[in-house]
Amino acid sequence: MVPDLSSLKNDDKLISLLKNNSGVYLLYNKVNGKCFIASAWVLKRKILDYTQPNYLKSGAHIIIARALLKYGLESFTLYILSSVDKKNSNKDSLLKLEQQYIDLISPKYNMPRRKK
């Protein structure tokens, strides 16, 4: 858990742990209780993207990007729900795991997905 997303850039230990991992993560808004769940083939890169203002502004149409800009990084807690070495995973299984967490938690920032 990273209690404050804005402090992530300074957490070398966590960044190092995420370096070669894929996984599923949750961003929790401490202000309104809403959350967002997603998966990333490269956790380090995707999670660090959220700390970059230009990345957020370029994705302003995405609900979580708008929320991060509105409430600020300090209002979000990062939870790694599942993390695996990329050598021991594949993208299909990662997406299935992400969908299982979405179905279980029903995060408010996620858009509804069509069931296959």
Please give a structural write-up.
By secondary structure, this protein is of the alpha+beta class. Helix content is 38%, strand content 22%. It has helices spanning 12-18, 43-49, 53-58, 63-71, 91-105, and strands at 21-29, 35-40, 76-85. It has a 3-stranded antiparallel beta sheet. The protein is globular. The mean pLDDT is 88.
What is the gist of this entry?
The chain is 38% helix and 22% strand. The protein has helices spanning 12-18, 43-49, 53-58, 63-71, 91-105; strands spanning 21-29, 35-40, 76-85. Strands 2-1-3 form a three-stranded antiparallel β-sheet.
Topology:
Layout: H1 12-18, E1 21-29, E2 35-40, H2 43-49, H3 53-58, H4 63-71, E3 76-85, H5 91-105
Antiparallel strand pairs: 1-2, 1-3
What attributes does this structure have?
alpha+beta, GIY-YIG endonuclease, three-stranded antiparallel β-sheet
